[in-house]
Design brief:
globular; Beta Polymerase, domain 2; 8 strands; 2 domains
Length: 321
């Protein structure tokens, strides 16, 4: 597992600065609305996703991670706590304001202790470390200790992302190639096609920050002797043995297959935790695969049957492979 204390000081400073950068105006309304429902159990809230990149809170649905101290403290029902622990996160929907001021919020609940594990190399699937390695904003934290723990999660996610994806990129690579191809690889491990243009959008939206941190993460990686990376004119070279590359590439076959299955399970779970969950699941499927599924009113009233039917149709369309 990664030793955060060995991370370059400049990298820690850049990550902390990005985390604490003020988000778009209006986020405080969202924070208060979620706190009103679950005040005592919340340790922190992390803003990420497309609305962060566009700097427009009305550009779709806001994506938040709500980090909690304990699932049992957060939920009234033990079954919800168990679901969240076994297959994190649980996803909920909230609206604030009205008319032009209406905000649509999707918040994903996970305990901070579980997120700390999920961003390390001990966590097999890329779901969490692929998101936390991208720019995120800490819009609420209970105290400075919690802030430090979230910062360590981001640093762990960066290290894990580089370790897991770097060997799958060409030996000679640029910073842009590393991020675009690396993120596209993580997309394949979920219920979405590989979309190079989406990864490129993330790169273009956050180029300054990503270019700043990349040399320091690679330096950190070199210090651990996981890979040997030499810098050439305007690019880098990965000097690793065939066995090292093979050992890193092979798990992606399992990671991609497992990810498709986990995505289906998460959609089924969202059908129960998310208001209008079946409609949300169908929207999510269309957004990430381009496939528009029509379900009967009967299926919409029975979320599990609806998701089984949707999964079978996606398999026939080869969206799940």
């Amino acid at each position: 597992m990664v030793n955060i204390s060995r991370a370059p000081l400049t990298l820690k400073s850049l990550v902390e600065k990005e985390l604490k950068t003020q988000g778009p105006k209006g986020l405080e309304v969202t924070v208060r609305a979620i706190q009103k429902k679950h005040r005592e159990a919340i340790l922190a809230m992390v803003f990420y996703g497309s609305c962060l990149r566009s700097n427009d809170l009305h550009d779709g649905i806001l994506d938040l991670y709500v980090l909690v101290d304990s699932y049992m403290a957060f939920y009234k029902r033990p079954l919800m706590a168990l679901w969240n622990f076994l297959l994190p996160p649980n996803v909920f929907y909230l609206e604030t304001g009205s008319g032009e001021d209406k905000l649509r919020i999707k918040y994903a609940v996970i305990s901070l202790s579980q997120l700390e594990r999920a961003t390390t190399t001990l966590w097999f699937h890329s779901y969490f470390w692929a998101r936390l390695c991208q720019p995120v904003r800490l819009i609420f934290f209970k105290d400075q200790l919690v802030c430090e723990r979230v910062k360590k999660c981001v640093l762990s996610a960066l290290f894990t992302f580089f370790v897991r994806t770097l060997p799958c990129i060409e030996r000679d690579f640029s910073e842009e190639m590393l991020w675009c191809k690396g993120l596209a690889l993580t997309y394949r491990a979920e219920l979405r096609p590989e979309r190079q243009e989406r990864a490129r959008t993330i790169w273009q939206s956050n180029k300054k920050y990503l270019k700043q941190i990349t040399p320091y993460v690679l330096s950190w990686l070199n210090g651990g002797n996981s890979h040997i990376i030499s810098k050439k004119a305007g690019s880098y070279r990965l000097d690793a043995s065939f066995s090292q590359l093979f050992a890193c590439k092979m798990p992606w076959i399992a990671r991609i297959a497992l990810g498709k299955l986990l995505s289906v399970f998460r959609l089924v779970k969202a059908a129960f935790t998310f208001r209008g969950g079946v409609d949300y699941a169908l929207w999510k499927i269309k957004r990430h695969t381009g496939i528009e599924l029509e379900l009967s009113p009967f299926l919409k009233r029975h979320p599990v049957l609806a998701m089984v039917f949707a999964s079978w149709r996606l398999f026939l369309y080869r969206a799940i492979r």
